[in-house]
Write a structure and sequence with these properties.
Shape: globular
Strand order of the largest sheet: 1-2
Helix content: 55-70%
Bound molecules: benzoyl coenzyme A
Number of helices: 14
Number of strands: 2
Largest sheet: 2 strands, antiparallel
Order of helices and strands: HHHHHHHHHHHEEHHH
Radius of gyration: 22 Å
Distance between the termini: 53 Å
Length: 337
């Protein structure tokens, strides 16, 4: 879809509601029955065209998020405060690259090539998570990304392990295991800062102040403004709503911040005895849509960095292709002898 969802939600709703006029009712019934019975849809199974497109949209955005998500932390590799921290950070960033590769492969099972997906990203036609358009100003931001961003990602992705599309659901199982380490290393790094010198504690608090609200935005618009949720939940692509997952993340993270002795940057945050959940303040949705639509602090820089890395890697791809061609030619020649 070439338009911006924030501008035309009614078109997205129409897209989701539209039924494929050419589809075979028997195949559709078998698909619906399988999804309702918690079966997994596999690449060779028949699926409605809209289901396929929805998966391509969501999984490719997820893949791009992992791929662009390497950049904010990459900013600190050369400045990590110790060899141990540097090794952990390098390994974490490598994991994110791996996640993007599993996810690009999952999209390829739906008939879209990796080249097409990367072209869309590099040309600015694709979305990726808003969170990666914020800058990493201090080392504490690396800790905050692990604790909050990976923390939010796990809450979302644990739910996606039960996605009805087999390849996506299985990719999530492995990704969640790795994200869980990422979250714990981030929390541990944050704890060192929070229990450190007054300057370090201040740095940790400043970083929490800047990353808290963008982390809440990772879960997407609130349910009433989410044009894709209803259909995605009916197809069991998404298993929990944006607001339910966001609430889960808040409930999980507030006690962690209290343990660190840090203060959440939300004057309206309060435990509600009646609901058993934390109430929290209103998210700045204008900021969210500005970032999603390309006008965040780092959107342009992130795309530029990805394009430049792609261009600089051209010789590696060319060399690998030339090597593969030579290997094939040698094989053919040997077979002809
Ligand atoms: N940022 O109808 P909605 C990681 C878009 S990376 C940007 O609710 P949906 C990590 C949405 O795409 C893990 N765009 O949509 C890596 C839609 O636009 P289109 C990242 C957003 O799909 C490195 C429109 O707004 N996780 O862990 O039903 C270092 C309307 O929204 C955002 C994932 O990618 C956003 N925050 O639900 C550290 C999770 N939110 O396509 C860590 C996978 C919404 O209609 N994705 N939009 O034009 C999902 O679970 C779902 O796609 C979402 C949105 C919950 C994000």
């Amino acid at each position: 879809m070439a338009y911006t969802i924030a501008e035309k939600p009614e078109e997205a709703r129409a897209f989701a509601a539209e039924t494929d006029r050419n589809e075979d009712p028997a195949k559709r019934a078998a698909f619906d029955t399988k999804v309702a019975a918690e079966g997994k849809i596999e690449p060779r199974d028949w699926m409605p065209e809209k289901y396929r497109k929805t998966l391509v949209r969501q999984i490719s955005q997820h893949a791009h998020s992992e791929y662009v998500g390497m950049l904010p932390e990459g900013n600190w590799v050369t400045r990590a405060p110790s060899l141990r921290r540097k090794a952990i950070l390098l390994s974490k960033i490598q994991d994110e690259a791996g996640h993007s590769l599993y996810l690009y492969s999952a999209v390829e099972t739906l008939g879209v090539s990796r080249d097409e997906l990367l072209d869309a990203l590099h040309e600015g036609r694709a979305k990726y998570s808003s969170i990666f358009n914020y800058p990493t100003l201090t080392w504490a931001d690396v800790a905050a990304i692990g604790w909050l961003v990976d923390g939010a990602a796990i809450v979302n992705q644990v739910s996606l392990q039960r996605c009805s599309y087999g390849p996506y659901s299985r990719a999530m199982v492995r990704i969640c295991k790795e994200e869980s380490f990422h979250q714990r290393q981030g929390y541990e790094a944050m704890m060192m800062l929070a229990q450190g010198t007054p300057e370090q504690k201040k740095m940790a608090q400043d970083s929490l102040n800047r990353w808290w609200w963008p982390s809440l935005m990772m879960f997407g618009p609130s349910d009433k403004d989410s044009p894709n949720s209803e259909q995605s939940m009916a197809w069991r692509i998404k298993r929990d709503s944006n607001d339910d997952l966001r609430q889960k993340f808040v409930d999980m993270t507030v006690p962690q911040a209290e343990y660190l002795g840090l203060k959440m940057p939300d004057p309206d945050l309060k435990f509600n005895e009646e609901t058993g959940h934390y109430d929290f303040g209103e998210i700045d949705w204008n900021e969210f849509w500005e970032v999603v639509n390309g006008n965040g602090i780092c959107n342009r820089e992130r795309l530029q960095d990805r394009r430049s890395a792609w261009d600089k890697g051209a010789w590696v791809r060319d060399a690998a292709m030339a090597h593969a061609e030579k290997k094939d030619a040698r094989k053919l020649a040997a077979a002809a002898e």
